[in-house]
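Example 5.3 — Glycosyltransferase BC10-like
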Amino acid sequence: MKVAKEWRLGSMGDTKILPGSRHRSPLKRPIWIILMVSFVSLFLVCAYIYPPNSDVACYVFSSRGCKVLTDWLPPPKRELTDEEIISRVVVRDILDTPPVESKNPKIAFMFLTPGSLPFEKLWDMFFRGNEGRFSVYIHASKEKPVHVSPYFLNWEIHSSPVTWGAFSMVDAERRLLAYALKDLDNQHFVLLSDSCIPLHNFDYVYNYLMHANMSFINCFVDPGPHGNGRYSTRMLPEVEEKDFRKGAQWFTMRRQHALLVMADSLYYSRFRDYCRPFADGKNCIADEHYLPTFFNLVDPGGIANWSVTHVDWSERKWHPKSYRAQDVTEIAFSLNLWNGHMKLEVIFNGNFGQYSFSC
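Solution (predicted structure tokens):
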């Protein structure tokens, strides 16, 4: 039989005998704590799967409502609609398809105009000597234009009336893309208006766009009343407010993206139905939101999020600033010979940097 050992502490004269190990009774498990943790866990799981929809149910959790619960819970994954599944399959296949090879790649210049083009002579100088490297398409919504340049003759497409701010603007853009896509050599597509002019010579614009593996579409978040303030919840579930974007109408687009626009019916229909002037008490301008939102959803990495077309909105009006004679230098419209070719440079009193066009 083992005897408990004596432990001596301190000096040799002071001794204290410590008892050996004693048998302890097992601890009682705190059953009520286990039950409480289980109940809270079950409660949170149920609240995540079946979130409360009424204000009364929300205030059971917190005086600040459901926001407290949703702030730290991950957003629940919703089931995609049939239209969304179809759209994603089409988008994936178009983006994965190798671009059409062309021995003579061209840029399609698409003019959206009410009638004649006041800067047609300037565009004539821009195109001269570059035959075979561009195409021209004209959507004249009000009257048949009168042309002064042979590059614009017989290039009017079937047109419909266009109202500023209305969805007919988006339809006109898609109509121009459809006609331009018929030519397999067209590899890049530029939307222009009757007030647009080139800022550089043709070679500069051609090389810049053709060597860029992206589309130049203006796309940004605008939390103000003229941005996300135009969003309608009737676009749900396909278009959420966090995905709603804004951008200037002007774009340059590579061929695969132009095909995506033609193939889209899901997001097109949502903007057609719920992004209109004075719809639901909001003044939604579709041509400023449809394409930026669409590409933010289907291929955000494929666009530059900025445009190569300069538009000055600093005057804070419904229309951008119009440039007058005093804004243009004396050498703006000079035409010089450079290595046997005509060189056109349009120079304004300002720094235009990356821009290729001005409207």
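Remark. The first strand starts at residue 106 and ends at 113.
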